[in-house]
Amino acid sequence: MTALRPVPGEVRVPRTRPAGELIPPDAAPLERWPSLGWATAGRRASFALAAAVPLAFLGLFFVWPVVAMLVRGLTDAAGALDLAGVADVLAKPRTWRVVTTTVVQALAGTAVAVVLGVPGAYVLYRRRFPGRTLVRGLVTVPFVLPSVVVGVAFRALLGPGGPLGGLGLDGTFAAIVCALVFFNYAVVVRTVGGFWSRLDPRAEEAARALGASPARVLRTVTLPALVPAIASAAALVFLFCTTAFGVVMVLGSREHATIETEIYTRTTQLLDLRTAAVLSVLQMLVVAAALLVSARARTARERALALHAEPRGERPLTWRSRTDVLATTVTGLVVVGLLAWPMATLVARSFRTTDGTWTLDAYRRLAEAGPGTGLTVTVWQATLTSLTTAAVAATIAVVVGGLVSFVVSRRPRSRAGRRSLAVLDAVVMLPLGVSAVIVGFGLLVTMTRPVLGVDLRTTGWLLPVAQALVAVPVVVRLLLPVLRAVDPRQHEAAATLGAPPGRVVRTVDLPLVTRPLGLAIGFAFAASLGEFGATSFLARPDAPTLPVVIVRLLGRPGTENLGTAMAAATVLALVTAAVMLLAERLRGDTAGEL
After folding, report:
1. Mean pLDDT, to the nearest integer, of 145-150?
2. Family per UniProt (predicted)?
C-alpha cells in the first residue's frame, strides 16, 4: 500500500501533546507544519540577528578584555609566549594553597547549603501556609544582596562588640562558609523546590499505601527522584562559592585568600599580571568543570519534568507530621539564625555607638563628604549613582539575555545547530566564572579607542556594561526554561497562517514570559546594584557607586567611619530587598528557577 502523502498546499494537523506538557531539549522533532518560503527566510534572518547581537556584545565587552589580560600576563615584553614564567607561578606553593582554599571553601559551602536547603524546599514548595509568598521573597533576598553588605553584616555579628564576638569567629574559615551559605541557601531552595513541586505525588502515595513509613518514602522514593535538581543546585552553588569575591575580601584574611581575592591583590597592589593571568586560567578550569556538571544536571532535571509542567502535590502544613515539624524547625532556625540575625545586627549597630547609645548620627553622616570622611561625594549621591547605573545595566542585561534565551530555546533539526546553541548557552554563563577583577581591568585597558565614535571610559557607559555582563547569565537562567516549554508547533502554526516572525514572538512567546521577565529584571537590577569587582576599576572618582563607598569607609580608621559604613550598607540592603520583594510578587509561578 502506498503511504499517504500530503497534497501540496495542504495543511496537516500535527499530533499533539497533553496541555502543559514540556518537551525535552533533545526530543526528536515532531511533524512540522509546512512553511512558506518568505516566512522561512524571515525567521532565519530574525534568528541570525537575535544571535548576532549578544555574540557581538559578549565578544566586544567580555572575550576581548579577558583575552587581552591573559595575553599580557602570559607573554614577555616582546610579546612572545613565556611558558617559563607560567611554570614559575605554578611552582609557587602560594598558588596551590590559594587554589586549594578556594575549592575547600566552595565544597564546604555547597555541602552545608544543600543539607539546609532541602528542608527549606520542602516547606516552601510542598506545603501551604499563610505568608508563604512573603517568606519565599525574604529567603531570595540574601542571594542578590551585595557581597560587601553581607561581609559587613557578618563582621557586625561576629566581630568585636557583636553578639557573637566572644566566639572568636571573625575572619575564620567558619565565618566565610556561613556567609557563603547565607548567599546560596536560596539557590538550593528555589531549584530543588521548583522541581519538587512538580513531581508526581502518586509514587509517594503508592509507597505509603504499601505500608512504608514517611522516612522510608523520603529515603527510597523522594530523594532519588530529586537527584537531578539537587545536583543542579549543588553545581550552581559551587560555582557561586568559587567566585565569591566581596565576602572573602571583607571577612577573610591573607590566610583564607581565594583565587578571586588573590587576583585582585596581584592586579591592584602588586601589578603582577602574570600571576593574575595564570590564576585566571586556573579559575576558568574550575568554573568550566562546574558549568559542565551544571549543564548536564539541568538537562536531566528538564527531562524529568517533561510530563509534569504544573505544580502538584501541595498540602497544608500540619504539626501532626514529624516530617513537617522537623523540616519547619530546620527552616525556621536557618531563616532566623543564619539569614535574619546578621542583617538585624547590621541594622541595630548602625543606630548604636560603641558605648551602647542609640543615635542617628551615622545616618546624618550619610549626607556628608569631604576630607573628614575620605569621600568625594555623599552616600546619598553614591546611592543615586548606583540606582541609575543599575537601571541601565539591567536594561542591557534583559535585552541581551532575552535574545540569548530566544535563540537557545529553539530546537534546530540539525545536530550542528543544536551543538551551536549549546555552545552559546555555555559561553553566556562564563561571566559568572571569570574574575570580575580581570573583566574590569581588561575593559579599562582595552577600551582605549572609541567604540562607534564614543569613548566609553569618559561617558560612564563602561560601568553599566560591565555590570550587565554579570546579570546576563541570571536573566538567561530565568527566561530560558519558560521559552523551552513552548510547543514549537505553535510557532509553526502561526507562521503558516501568515504571521511574520516578529508577530509570532509577540503573540506566542511574550505572553508567557511577561511575569518571569519581571523577576529577571529584578534579579538583573539587584545583581548590578551590588557588583563590586569590576566596579572598583571602572567607577569614576567623582561618581563612585555605593559598594565602592562602603569599602572606602571600612578601610578608614575610626568608629565613626565604621558606623557610617554600616548605615550605608543598611541603605543598600533595604533598596535591594525592596526590588526583590516587588519582583517576587510579580513573579507568579511561571518563572524559571536558578
Report:
1. 81
2. Belongs to the binding-protein-dependent transport system permease family.
* Structural domains of the chain, count: 1
In a domain, 96, yes or no: yes
77 inside domain: no
Joined together, the cell numbers standing for residue 29 give: 522533532
CB 313 within 8 A of CB 201: yes
For 20, counting Cβ atoms within 10 Å of its Cβ (0-12 exposed, 13-18 middle, 19+ buried), the class is: exposed
Please report whether residue 26 resides in a domain. Answer: no
pTM here is 0.76
pLDDT digits (tens, 9 = 90+) for 260-281: 888 888 877 777 877 887 887 7
Contact of 308 with 17, CB cutoff 8 Å: no
The CATH number for 118's domain is: 1.10.3720.10
Taking alpha carbons only, the member of 48, 32, 53 closest to residue 420 is: 48
According to DSSP, the residues that pair with 370 across neighbouring strands are 375
Question: Which is nearest to 228 in space by CA: 281, 165, 296, 276?
Answer: 296
- Angle (CA) 333-338-339 rounded to 5° is 105
Q: From CA 427, how far away is CA 137, in angstroms rounded?
A: 30
Q: Rounded to an integer, what distance in angstroms lies between the CA atom of residue 473 and that of residue 128?
A: 31
Contacts of residue 36, Cβ cutoff 8 Å, sequence gap at least 6: 495, 496, 498
Residue 397, judged by CB atoms within 10 A of its CB (0-12, 13-18, 19+), counts as: buried
Asked if residue 169 belongs to a domain, the reply is yes
Mean pLDDT score, 382-404:
91
Distance CA 47, CA 51 (A): 6
Q: Which three cell numbers stand for residue 425?
A: 548557552
The C-alpha angle with vertex 440 and arms to 439 and 443, in degrees rounded to 5, equals 85
CA distance 450 to 459: 11
Q: Which residues pair with 375 in a beta bridge?
A: 370
Grid coordinates belonging to 331? 527552616
- Which residues constitute the domain of residue 100? 90-346
